[in-house]
Amino acid sequence: MNSPDPRGGGEAGYTLVGLLILVAIVNIGLAVAVTSWRSIDIRAREAELIWRGEQIARAIACHGKTEATEPLEKLEQLVESNCLRSLYRDPMSRDGKWRILRQADLTDGTIAALQGEPAPDAEGAPATIGFLGTAQTPATPAASRPGLQTPGTVERPSLLGGLSPVESTGGVGGANTIIGVMSQKTGAATRLYNTYEKYEGWLFLGVRGVS
User: Fold this and answer.
1) How many C-alpha atoms does 48 have within 13 Å on its Cβ side?
2) Is residue 116, in this structure, part of any structural domain at all?
3) What is the CB-side half-sphere exposure of residue 4 using CA atoms within 13 A?
4) Which ranges of 67-178 does DSSP label H, i.e. alpha helix?
5) Which of 28, 39, 122, 180 has its CA at a distance of 20 to 30 angstroms from the CA of residue 134?
6) Worst-scoring range by mean pLDDT, 6-20, 39-53, 63-77, 81-95?
7) What is the edge-to-edge ordering of all strands in the sheet holding 99-102?
8) Rounded to an integer, what distance in angstroms lies between the CA atom of residue 198 and that of residue 186?
9) Is 1 inside a domain boundary?
10) Residue 148: which of 46, 54, 48 has the closest Cα?
């Protein structure tokens, strides 16, 4: 009776090891590809967020100058007043809904807190506001973070320049008047926007506090 050739088992073992190595390499490649795709997707949605947010900010400024007798209390009014082509969704949130910023958020210091700036004076006096295009106080730069992409920084003046200033001391419609939007997304972004590295500082305002 012939005994089995031991070399056959050795070759099968080498083949199995080779397959395991190949599977490991493929898994690593897939993991890198998925990570890269997620990064590309996030950057694309951030760019879309900036574009849509800026469009809404411009529309709010437009509404404030063309429909001053009608307080802006819902975003749908921007479409009704022909200041916005359509009501863009927040590309960073699942439900597409924006976080609405109102005049009360400006006067009570909420907006200042979001951007790490000084709140209104201790006596609670309303902040002076103006439509986009008025002089702004430079924002405090955020601390640099490894891997943060600065080439993608978008500056508001370059996008919204040329809008004539219209001063207001209280805003049209009182505390409930919409003055801007922000994404529901929180945490660190992959780029800077107006020097802010977190989504909480990415405010798209049709009016801004002025010094």
Assistant:
1) 13
2) yes
3) 5
4) 76-80, 103-107, 110-114, 156-160
5) 122
6) 6-20
7) 99-102, 178-182, 203-205
8) 7
9) no
10) 46
Distance CA 198, CA 178 (A): 22
Alpha-carbon distance of 199 to 130, in angstroms, equals 23
DSSP 8-state secondary structure symbol assigned to residue 92: T
User: What's the token pair of residue 199?
Assistant: 């989504």
Give the torsion through C-alpha atoms of 64, 121, 114, 210, to 10 deg. 40
The answer, yes or no, to whether residue 156 has pLDDT greater than 50, is no
Distance CA 197, CA 181 (A): 17
Domain assignment present for 195: yes
Write down the pLDDT at residue 196: 94
Position 208 scores a pLDDT of: 56
The answer as to whether 124 is a domain residue is: yes
How many residues would you count in the chain?
211
Q: How many domains does the chain have?
A: 1
Host domain of residue 167? 6-209
Q: What is the dihedral of CA 181, 182, 183, 189, to 10 degrees?
A: 150
Question: What pLDDT sits at residue 45?
Answer: 94
Pairing state between β 149-154 and 188-193: parallel
pTM to 2 decimals?
A: 0.64
Amino acid (one-letter) located at 193 = Y
